[in-house]
Design brief:
Largest sheet of chain B: 7 strands, antiparallel
Number of helices of chain A: 3
Largest sheet of chain A: none
Helix content of chain A: 40-55%
Mean pLDDT of chain A: 94
Distance between the termini of chain B: 46 Å
Oligomer: heterodimer
Helix content of chain B: 10-25%
Low-confidence stretches of chain B: none
Order of helices and strands of chain A: HHH
Number of strands of chain A: 0
Strand content of chain A: under 5%
Largest interface: A-B, 13 and 15 residues
Structural class of chain B: alpha+beta
Low-confidence stretches of chain A: none
Number of strands of chain B: 7
Number of helices of chain B: 4
Order of helices and strands of chain B: HEHHEEEEEEH
Shape of chain B: globular
């Protein structure tokens, strides 16, 4: 897996079909989740979706 | 069918008195549910994505899980029998790796969240198998007795 899969991961993350943030973190190396939101799957997804839009990803 | 999926994963449930108590929910897991938290995913992942008590090692060992539940007031105990005035949790491990935790209900039965899936009510050892392994640790903590329970204990 590599960067080509990132839009798919954002699409699935938006649909809440699984813990796709784990793969996004590994592939991008980014960590946009505030420490206070660790473990909160909904807030983690929101943080990643926001990050994806800010970095120009489309899905 | 949910039952056939669960029983394929946990053959010990076949023909046993278990009940599915919730729909699938990927927002919390077994450890969170045993800890009384249905809003977060608890695991000592090295990346730090998941909820874990701040002062407890983020390693997948039975000792780390014991320490995590100790932060909630649980202490190691000898058995999984129902005790008036106590709430118990049980940690399952496979090849020494923690895989699951269940929490005892006031009835003496146990409640488990199955990964990303459903909550079930079950007999504790019916989840023993190749997915979760077996119970390796039981802990308990005192819970306030309801007035009726207190009267029953005092009457003994």
């Amino acid at each position: 897996m590599g960067p080509a899969i990132i839009p798919f991961l954002f699409r699935e993350l938006e649909k809440r079909t699984g813990h796709w943030h784990r793969a996004l973190r590994r592939i991008t190396g980014a960590d946009p989740v505030p420490p206070a939101d660790r473990g909160n799957i909904g807030k983690i997804a929101e943080a990643w979706l926001r990050w994806g839009k800010e970095h120009g990803y489309q899905w | 069918m949910v039952e056939s999926r669960l029983e394929a994963m946990f053959p010990g449930l076949r023909g046993r008195p278990y009940e599915i108590k919730s729909p699938r929910d990927g927002n919390y897991n077994c450890i969170a549910w045993a800890a009384g938290d249905s809003g977060n995913w608890w695991w000592p992942d090295a990346a730090g994505d998941d909820t874990w008590p701040a002062d407890v090692a983020r390693v997948e060992t039975v000792a780390a899980f014991r320490d995590a539940f100790a932060t909630l007031g649980y202490a190691v105990c000898d058995d999984d029998l129902l005790e008036a005035g106590y709430e118990k949790i049980a940690v399952f491990a496979l090849l020494s790796l923690p895989k699951h935790a269940a929490r005892q209900l006031p009835s003496g039965r146990w409640t488990s969240k199955l990964g990303l899936g459903e909550d079930i009510e079950h007999e504790l050892h019916d989840l023993t198998g190749m997915v979760y392994g077996s119970v390796v640790l039981v802990m308990k903590r005192a819970v306030p007795l309801a007035a009726s329970e207190k009267a029953a204990v005092e009457a003994k």
